[in-house]
Amino acid sequence: MEPMPLPHFLVLLCLVVIAAGVTIWLASQVGVSGAIAAMAVLLAGAVLRLFMKVEP
Questions:
Q1: Where are the alpha helices (DSSP H) in the chain?
Q2: Rounded CA gap, 40 and 50, in Å?
Q3: Residue 16 has pLDDT above 90, yes or no
């Protein structure tokens, strides 16, 4: 497998950081408490982990 080119990696990293910031901003504007948002993120991560295909 070929490594990802540096510009693609940096753009992907910037997009992830921007998406996280927009999500946090939107949650604060709607009035979702930080604890509930954190629990939702942990639950979503656990669900995704259950459905991930992990090869030994």
A1: 6-30, 34-51
A2: 15
A3: yes
Place of tokens 């910031």: 21
CA distances from 25 to 1, 9, 11, 21, 33 (A): 37, 24, 21, 6, 12
- For 21-50, give one letter per residue: b (16+ CB within 10 A) or e: eeeeeebeeeeeeeeebeeeeeeeeeeeee
Residue count (the chain):
56
Q: Residue 43 has which token pair?
A: 């639950």
| pLDDT at 56 > cutoff 70 | no
